[in-house]
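Morning!

As promised:
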Amino acid sequence: MKILVIEDEAALSKSIITYLKQENYLCEVATNFNTAIEKVDSYDYDCILLDISLPDGNGLNILKALKENNKTDGVIIISAKDSIDDKITGLQLGADDYIPKPFHLSELSARIAAVIRRRRFNGGNVLVFHEITIDTLAKTVTVHNQFVDLTRKEYDLLLYFTINKNRVLSKTAIAEHLSGENAEVYDNYDFIYAHIKNLKKKLSAAQCNDYLKSQYGMGYKFEY
Amino acid sequence: MKLINYISRRYIVYAILILLIAIPVFYFSLQYLMLKSLDESMNHQKVWIEKQLRTTIPDNFISFENSIIVRPSSNPKIFDSIYNKPVFIPDDNETVMHRILLSNTFVNGKPYEIRIQKSMIEDEDLLNSILILQFILVAALLIGLMIINFQLSKKLWKPFNDIVNKLNLYRVDNDDSYRFMPTHIEEFNNLGNSIKDLTKRNQRLYKTQKEFTENASHELQTPIAVMQSKLELLMQTNPISKDQAELIEEIAIAGNKMQRLNRTLLLLTKIENNQFPATEKIGIQTIIQKLLDQYEEPAQQKELQWNLSLDHEIEITANPILIDILIGNILSNAIRHSENGQTLSVKTEQRNLIISNPAKKELNHEELFQRFKKQSENTHSIGLGLEMSKKICDLYQYEIQYHFTNQQHMFSIHFH
């Protein structure tokens, strides 16, 4: 799967690429508007990560160019501006998602996976991890072909872990993924323990291996 | 005290003082002058009478109203005497103060006494009339001066009051430059010009500072993003010891806080810059219901109870994002600072929204809505939430207030 990272901050695009490469994505970088336009014109990508504020142009124009050429590449806007207007304009212009800087790489990866899933119509909405099968369309989980009844949060959590398998996910990243902007309402991120505990309980009740490991205090890892 | 009163009070005190001294001095000197002229005229008469007595018989000497009496004297005095004495006037049937001159003279070798008496009533009357007149004059002068002073000052101070009124409305974040009432008074002109310069300088400084905050926050976003992404990659490296994991965890927490701080500062700057111009009609109940749904989980986690009375619909026209933030901050504060099993209440009445939660001690009213004045010891909190709520209220001229009653924190917002 090919991903184009349009981002002028080299250190950040390097981080993104390092993280995504391990997920077997094929990554390319464009550090300015002109290169980005050239690449977008010449190739098709499964997903484009688009920074709006580029040194030589507005990223939103790349989005416009894509739509004018009837390209169907998935687009996720990454913006330092965190401005609602940019978000709205971007989504109106046909971007699939918007993620403000700074973000967790695991969150970005989850969003990319979601965009790609939505773009592939045949069978793309089923995720398999050993005995676990997640149907992202029906939002159901089966283990050994047996349905596991998960709450919304537990389902989100499992999907998030599966997409970022073999990665350490920090508690902050998990908390923010689960609660979105509400993460600040919590005194601490202890609430994620409860969800993780319940998820583990339900999975093991379904004869699922225990893939979910705590990495000291740092975070959790879904590994095999 | 008003300047005009301050000055007038001194004028009045001085005028009264002068009057108190001047009236007796005037009275006595006038009286002295009158007596002197009276005595002089009596002396003239005496000389005239003595001359007359050389040609006529003293016994035939008769004067008008018995004002001059010449009669033989038994014990002649050498010196004349002048004194005041009340004399009964039978015609008027009253006793009147008289000036009396007694003198001795010899007519044909016989001693005679000359007594000249003059009523002082005319002089007293004159004196009194003069005094009253003088008093009226002074009073008229004083009152006139006061009126002119007050009238003039009212007019004179108009430009000054105009400056003060405009300064009262002064907001450093308002770009309008001042236009003061034109005046011929140099001092006020100078004052107006100085204030114009001062406010212009202030506005420029404020703008620079605001731009700095904005730019700083903006520019910080990228390095924070880089740092956070590197940290996430660092987490993935293998092997990681327990010590390293702890360090990474602490950096991650600090980084996250930095990120939230920065994001909130940016948002604050945007609110201050009025970058949320789009408004629409919003029902407060709808917003609260939405927020309660959003916060359902944290509230459930603490087993909080809700005491809702949202029957009174409040409709406002504002930016929905800002209203979300405004009410969300207060609601989430209430949730965060409550203990397990407590009851929070959300109430709407008339144009007020009241959110309260049980608490042990009162918060500091003065610092409550200020930047970084954290009232809680919670390290998770960044101390900007209430300031943001206040800023949003300021923007829409809502009133946000905090009370501590019955062991409850109570935040009320009055929507105009």
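The longest strand of chain B covers residues 94-107.

Hope this helps with the figure draft.
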